Amino acid sequence: MTIxxxxxxxxxxxxxxxxxxxxxxxxxxxxxxxxxxxxVLVGEDPASSVYVRNKGKMTLxxxxxxxxFKLPASIGEEELLDLVEELNADDRVDGILVQLPLPAHIxxxxxxxxxxxxxxxxxxxxxxxxxxxxxxxxxxxxTPLGCLMLxxxxxxxxxxxxxxxxxxxxxxxxxMAQLLLAENCxxxxxxxxxxxxxxxxxxxxxxxxxxGRAEMVxxxxxxxxxxxIDVGINRVTDTEDGKSRIVGDVxxxxxxxxxxxxxxxxxxxxxxxxxVLLRNTLVAAHARAGLAKPEGL
Length: 297
Ligand code: NDP
Fold this sequence. Notes:
Layout: E1 5-6, H1 9-31, E2 36-42, H2 46-61, E3 65-71, H3 77-89, E4 95-98, H4 108-114, H5 126-133, H6 142-155, E5 162-166, H7 173-182, E6 186-190, H8 197-202, E7 206-209, E8 227-230, E9 234-237, E10 244-247, H9 252-255, E11 261-262, H10 270-288
Parallel strand pairs: 1-11, 2-3, 2-4, 5-6, 5-7, 7-8, 8-11
Antiparallel strand pairs: 9-10
NADPH dihydro-nicotinamide-adenine-dinucleotide phosphate (NDP) is lined by residues 143, 166-169, 171-173, 190-194, 197, 210-213, 231-234, 269-270, 273.
Subunit structure: Homodimer.
Domain Tetrahydrofolate dehydrogenase/cyclohydrolase NAD(P)-binding: 141-287
EC number: 1.5.1.5, 3.5.4.9
């Protein structure tokens, strides 16, 4: 039995962060200032706090300016929108990221819609999703762009391949499908109402699973030789020892007998997200300074 390759997202992300670091040095030499990323955290959700802390650390490690704004969960929407406006107007800020989810009394769409699209390094603003959907230069959401980088690194030209994206969120599934379409894949988007998901997945040369259900995609669903990108992050508790661990949306151990290559969870897509966030910030800084997009990114 042949065993597929495990794609090392951690190593790829490290290389990408290194390239971003070199780009930051060059940008700073040209402009006399560092690219800046502002991250806004509302409330004290433990997972969000960890993400924000990691983003801050990695931003500094890449040689950029990191600005963190921690606001109480009780903050009003107006006050949050005022902060976003201030960051829009601040020349030191190239990228603005408002950590989601926001408390229920705040309208996420209004907050995202207030971010200057040129500083929208998460790529969630409708201007950016519209640009992406119409095949124009856009700020692309970090996770799907990271998935695409891993796919291109593994497969080279994706043209003509059958791609199935499981999940249709605005953050992962939909932009992932747009990116694959732009690479000339034949794209199917599956979701919770899809009939016979197993046979839909089975026709794919590329499977991207972004569902949020532990090991839902079974090994036998995968077409032999397909490449699988597992975006899911699911915490499960072992019945035997009661310990919890993180698994993806794909039953990786089973899938390994079928795939050409697969991303592990953890260590696959996860590390790519922050690396692409830094990349997007550097790209935004170049655009704002009237400089050409940095090469190799
Ligand atoms: P959402 O909950 O927003 O979307 C989940 C999607 O999965 C929906 O489109 C839903 O369909 C679909 N779905 C749910 N159940 C099924 C089913 N039984 N069969 C087929 N499709 C189904 O999640 P996100 O897109 O935000 O995230 C997906 C996963 O990726 C999560 O585990 C999340 O933690 C992870 N993630 C990881 C990141 C990383 O950095 N590695 C970044 C972002 C997310 P419908 O629309 O019909 O409800």
